[in-house]
């Protein structure tokens, strides 16, 4: 009996204990909050645009963000557009518009290089890399040569910033550019070929000079595939009849013409990946406007710009830029570039461009020459790598050219060539040509040689020659004052057009 009583007492006490534990009130308990010290920025981690933390303005920026009068956080600063160029003289506009301001981040950085390989390397890295580039400024032949290696970027020429003026020269034996093409299977041209790495040869030539040589021979009737390149300065070079070299290169042959005569043959273009044009067209528009303004300033102060470039004085240079040439060398190179104008952009790019004068026509023609000569293995893409969006957004439309009335041209005559005009090159059309195709070629040549005149001869005598000249005048817009005809029939050709340099 006592055992049952003991069990009963223990059970009642246990139930009472459970009841008290369940029903008792609990006081809340909060753990102490962790105090996190404010982060301290390291000077080593600061970017190029970071301000000194000890500056007086830093105290103002350190206000509690929760305070009612706290200013909104500033927007992130865009990184500068990085612009590479093939030569220091091609960033003269950037030097002219650069205004040193210690309190403002640069909107662009300049990266002049001396080799096309270096330009390609910067574009491959991209503008987000301090040693990369967003935009490249290069002569059109160099762009075509590099296109195959940069194809993955889908690079596009989006504006013309200038033209080469006398930097490339065509030398030849006396009369060699006026005669029928040599009958040999191959024609020797002293020029920088695709596999030449000799420093001396590279100093005497360039892609643009080689393109000029191929253009001259193609005009004469020699296809680029027939041309064999001879290294400049080699013993074999002395026997060749033709040479295409850069200005200042030693050559025993006579200088016949240069890009000072063929003043629209080597445009200098600004190139960017298509993805950048798609995503940042607005910044490229701003860059284009500023660049043309810089070209105008550089033209008014060439010596000052040359000095700034030579001394790297206040220039926003990208990482990895090497030394600059002397001011006197830069001044000479600046004189070998004709700056383009914003108002002329739609004459070359876009739907309003005249076909015979457009950048598309010149790109297609130059691409064929360089591919035939082996400087590029890639054919021109079906859609040429030219993007008109920036130009169409900022450049004015070209003035409309009124076609002359039919009765105004019907009786027009062609005056004889100027007495002191000198023939420098002859275009020879083979038997497959007709009057319209020869007239179209005259239209193209008239835009390449802006100040030249043309003397036409054809099978069928003076009547046939006048029919070609009339087609060039009426269909291609070549002024009648630049055209003359002769009754002499060309030997071995449907027609011949002599390009005459005026005194």
Describe the protein:
The chain has 503 residues and is of the alpha/beta class. It folds into three domains: 81-163 and 266-394, D-Maltodextrin-Binding Protein, domain 2 (3-Layer(aba) Sandwich); 168-258; 406-501, 2-Layer Sandwich (60s Ribosomal Protein L30, Chain: A). The protein is built from 17 helices and 15 strands. The protein has helices at residues 2-23, 57-61, 92-97, 116-125, 140-147, 199-204, 207-220, 274-279, 281-300, 302-311, 327-334, 345-348, 359-372, 389-394, 406-410, 435-448, 461-476, and strands spanning 81-86, 108-113, 135-139, 155-164, 168-172, 187-190, 227-230, 242-246, 254-258, 267-273, 337-339, 422-429, 453-458, 483-485, 495-501. It has a six-stranded mixed beta sheet. A five-stranded mixed beta sheet has the order 7-6-8-5-9, with helices on one face. Strands 12-15-13-14 form a four-stranded mixed beta sheet. Strand 1 (81-86), helix 3 (92-97) and strand 2 (108-113) form a beta-alpha-beta unit. It starts with a helix and ends with a strand. Residues 28-76 have low confidence and may be disordered.
Return the structural class. Answer: alpha/beta
How many domains, in number, for the residues? 3
Computed Rg: 35 Å
The main β sheet shows up as: 6 strands, mixed
Mean pLDDT, nearest integer? 86
- Determine the number of helices (DSSP H or I, runs of at least 4 residues): 17
Relative strand content: 15-25%
Helix content: 25-40%
CATH topology of the largest domain: D-Maltodextrin-Binding Protein, domain 2
pLDDT < 50 stretches: 28-76
User: Quick one: overall form?
Assistant: elongated
Between the first and last Cα atoms, what is the distance in angstroms? Answer: 145 Å
| CATH level-1 class of the largest domain | Alpha Beta
Number of distinct beta strands: 15
**What is the CATH superfamily label of the largest domain?**
Periplasmic binding protein-like II
- Strand line-up of the largest beta sheet: 2-1-3-10-4-11
Q: Can you name the CATH architecture of the largest domain?
A: 3-Layer(aba) Sandwich
